[in-house]
Amino acid sequence: MKIKIICENCNSETELIPETVGKLSYVQRKLRDGNFRMFENEISHDVSSSLYDDFIEKLVVADNKKQVEDLLNREIEDNVNIDSKLESLRIDCRGCGNYIVLTEFD
Length: 106
Ligand SMILES: [Zn+2]
Prior knowledge:
Mean pLDDT: 92
Number of domains: 1
Shape: elongated
Strand content: 35-45%
Radius of gyration: 22 Å
Number of helices: 3
Strand order of the largest sheet: 3-4-5
Helix content: 25-40%
Low-confidence stretches: none
Order of helices and strands: EEHEHHEE
Number of strands: 5
Distance between the termini: 20 Å
Bound molecules: zinc ion
């Protein structure tokens, strides 16, 4: 499988092709060579807490800023859910400024 990117304004073009056993394609390297740039245009985050009782109890008994900071650094990831979703990718043509925004991923 391959993806061909063509700017209809200035005729720059490049192909993203699989280059490794796992069929990885190195996007930025290939796009740079083809005079394009791709970047994450929008990422949404849904953050919710699911605080464990022992975490709350440790916070309650912490009696200085350093203890709270250490506790948060150690355990916050286990007590918060963050769902991130790529909403759109944008490809810019470096030659003429034309661009496309890819969106509606599942
Ligand atoms: Zn162009």
